[in-house]
Predict the structure.
Amino acid sequence: MLRKYARIALIALSLTALPTAGTALAAERGPEAAPSQSPSPAPAPSASPGPSSGTSPGTNPGRTPGSPPGHDHSHGHRPSPSPSPSPSPTASPSPAKPSVKLTQTQFVDANKGWAVGTAGDDPLARVWRTTDGGSRWASSPIGEGVRNATIGMANADHGWAAGPSGCSESAGSAVCSKLNILHTHDGGKSWFVQWSKDDPKANADNQIEPVSEGTAYVRTRSAIWKTTDLGQNWTDVSIPGAEASPYRISFPDEATGYAAGRLGSACPEKGLVPASESADCQVAVWKTKDGGGSWKRLAHAPRKSGEWYPADVKFVDKNNGYLLLVNPDTHASILYATSNGGVGWKVRNTKIPGIRPYPVKLDFVDPRVGYVPLSVGAGPVDGGLLRTINGGTTFTKLQDPRLVSVEDADFLTARRGYIVAMNPQQPGSSLLLATNDGGDKWTDRTPPGP
């Protein structure tokens, strides 16, 4: 019988940020986008046209108590009686905006960024966008009935989102029937479906790796799709073989990519572990040098049994990368590093929590400085944010009472970054926090409800 695997939180996301030391500021990630003409929505690929989305529940904004009325405390002599003025009309209190629940954040520079999540009781995905580092936000729904969206922005204008739609509630859970890839050409104000397919297992297990304005890779569970023309056409560049199951991908450039997952005839669905350590299931790492045209399993990458789970793989360039494996049975973890494009790997650390709290992702900005966000999941434990300044040899847990459970992290440089964290004062909502000193101090940049 398969044993339940306590699921690692995503991103989408996922994946989780680490402190940085006194290193020089790295260059801001991602080029500034030149204004471009808005393309018309691209047709969905002929393979697997999907049905129209099902209806989605309406919005039911949550309410928060208003401020208590003030009290007039009079002191000294009692005033002489005087005609009572006519009572002034009492203004009706403005309805409180719904709380914000965020799952992901991404910035392309110090000013332009996005956050993904939901507002109030509305389950439909929404994107918040800022052009001043989070001081002000505007938001809009992704539309098309999409839930649990993941985004990946190539620059200030162009990016993609992926998520399920056609969802209905069954036994307290959402069951979705279609998977979608959408594109924005105006910085997230509007989104257009470019690709969709009927998929009774459509869920939030999607990842987007944009590598240029026109080129992006999208992993949808074990499949990998690629576009080189802003999404007008999508090509299946999945790893061949029914036994290959990549769980995370990392593309440092348009041609070079890595995938980490499991391989074997006895590997269960993602989220489960094999019934025994001797089952035909192993951790595997693959590499492509031609943009997904062909994949090769790296011979000297860690080949742990299927009891181990690739939490993430992250390459900061085509040579320097990290692989984090976790074992849900023992709560153990192993962080591996390579400096020669995956030819050889060395163990860097075995002290990162493997489960409860869950490492969401690896967010390295260069070969030495990186962050790991830790999500509490179902708890009751403390998560937080880990930082390394020596390539993962040691990590420091950043100290801030708001870093109880960190759900995502996006660092532009060794010192400037943004995280999504559970609001410890209101666990059903989120905080978006910013730092410009490697996580020693944080500024609240949480977007308001729509």
About this structure: Residues 75 and 226 are 74 Å apart (CA to CA).
